[in-house]
């Protein structure tokens, strides 16, 4: 629900650009009895479009501190309240107050929620699902994002909801989803990880730990047998304890610790893979890109809608492949294919003058391939894979920094794209090819698979051969060994160092 709101708001001013510009002119007439010149109207429209990115960057910085004050659910509820206020400002206040300032402030608040949600929503999904299914549950949210972009481009057309009298309804529409969430929020629980940390002890006696509220919540959210759920619960607590033992919960200690630093850098690179493909520029300037390939201006918006629908369909269709091949392989294939597509697009654009009809078809083919590979790889996997390769206590810091880098890249790309396109035209896409090549090499040689990352996190030992880890992790000997180490190293002195630990129990025995 949060993702469809974000998608609608991000592209909302693209199809309604002409209509909102007319409103700005009417606002000038109402206030000063004159129309605004092209420079004034253009500046206001630029401010309104860019405020969602400025708000996103502020939100990305702020969410770290919000998570320290409020619970996961409280933060998400607050963001939906801000979304409602944002929708009212962009629609009712803007229209009836004849105030383009309200539109700008509303876009900023919308961006703020977007920036916070970029960290918060994937974090909540990761803390609710199992490590094996994180990417699978993250994938549909990205498909919804693309559907939201397609819906927004369609509803924003002048003859749908983008007309002079109907655009306020269009900009108010995302607030409806927030109202639905606010009604349902009292029935939604906190995440499992947050519940474990909220309880007095992370490590408790065997006879008591499976009666705690956090375990009861896990049972409700899992379909496996009791033994499987108990093993997952012990794994989650061991992972938390391993991170706490290393004192890696502060950001400075995350940077200083070798294992945690590897997780942090890997997560940042993974989270920025989607921006490296240039998808932010494509999303906001799709019409311009299609026009550059030779598509008539009056048809470009329909091609844009088709591209977003194609991305959503590819996301839905390829989701089952995550279980079979894993996020790491899929993101590498997707990035490689995206780089090839951008090179093909560049060649077709630079040679279009020699054979316009053929090169237009080649350009369209390149954009179709680009949409498919981006959806199949980085768009499908970037959030899930980033949360897979981080521990539960390192994950909030990794998602926080990743969100800041993501929003910084998004702002830089959006603000620079028009000028770079004007300066170097088709060669613009080669910039993203270079970024994608860097990401592929880094992930290939420095980022482990999901299973490998889990082994490294628990044992703190490097793994040279990724394929050798899976049978080791499934070994009962390995499970008993790591469980014994977990209990042996969980000393009373460590408990006193963390606020989530209570007094040590004196009659605990090892789990079976």
Automatic annotation (TrEMBL):
The keyword Kinase does not apply. Residues 1-451 form the Major facilitator superfamily (MFS) profile domain. It comes from the Eukaryota. InterPro entries: GLUT, MFS_dom, MFS_sugar_transport-like, MFS_trans_sf. It is a multi-pass membrane protein. It holds the Pfam family Sugar_tr. The keyword Transmembrane helix applies. Its main location: membrane. Keywords: Membrane, Transmembrane, Transmembrane helix, Transport. The chain crosses the membrane at residues 42-63, 75-98, 104-125, 137-161, 167-188, 264-285, 300-323, 330-347, 367-386, 398-421, 427-447. Gene3D superfamilies: MFS general substrate transporter like domains (1.20.1250.20). It is found in: Membrane. PROSITE patterns: MFS (PS50850). This is Major facilitator superfamily (MFS) profile domain-containing protein.
